[in-house]
Amino acid sequence: MKVKAHIPNMFTFFNLTLGILAIVSIINESYTVSALLILVAAFTDRLDGQLARKLDVESELGKELDSLCDLISFGVAPAVLIWSFHLAKFGVIGILIMVIFAISGAYRLARYNIMEFEGVYMGIPITMCGGILALITLYSINYQTNVHFIGMMTLFLSYSMISKKIKLKKR
């Protein structure tokens, strides 16, 4: 196999690495670093797909690998970040909100992988929803925010990922 076939997957693995480092940063209570790592992962996630198309090396393996890595970087890491920084105060309800976000992201990715495209995606991409949670965290580090609003926003983003009513056109 040619080297160029592996280039997009290297960006996908970098995305995963950033997601894992974001989780490690949460453990160390470095919330700003974690949020920034999630946002950089979003940038790399954008690049892997573009490179695969540009190099004409798209594959089913790459698609599945991308989804698995996205679940960590934009489902699990942002859910744990928002829980650790804000929602832990709600006890079991906070844990439930965190889990709902991660499950919604997993469902969205699985549905995406089996969809037949007709120029329209259903639901907001997990990358965008995870990025929004990272941005909310960055904002709330510097400005006082309503924790109830953040909980509701996390639930809204969870719904947005799996909603069939929200449709985005394919670029």
TrEMBL record:
Alphabetically ordered keywords of this record: Lipid biosynthesis, Lipid metabolism, Membrane, Phospholipid biosynthesis, Phospholipid metabolism, Transferase, Transmembrane, Transmembrane helix
E.C. code: 2.7.8.8
PROSITE patterns: CDP_ALCOHOL_P_TRANSF
Example of a GO cellular component annotation carried by this entry: endomembrane system
UniProt key word Membrane: yes
Transcription regulation is among the record's keywords: no
Catalytic activity as recorded in UniProt: a CDP-1,2-diacyl-sn-glycerol + L-serine = a 1,2-diacyl-sn-glycero-3-phospho-L-serine + CMP + H(+)
Pfam families associated with the record: CDP-OH_P_transf
Main localization, broad class: membrane
Gene3D superfamilies: 1.20.120.1760
Bilayer-spanning residue ranges: 20-44, 90-107, 119-139, 145-162
GO BP term, example: phospholipid biosynthetic process
GO molecular function, one term: CDP-diacylglycerol-serine O-phosphatidyltransferase activity
Localisation per UniProt entry: Endomembrane system
Similarity section: Belongs to the CDP-alcohol phosphatidyltransferase class-I family.
Matches recorded under NCBIfam families: pssA
The protein's name in its UniProt record: CDP-diacylglycerol--serine O-phosphatidyltransferase
Source organism of the structure: Clostridium formicaceticum
Gene: pcs
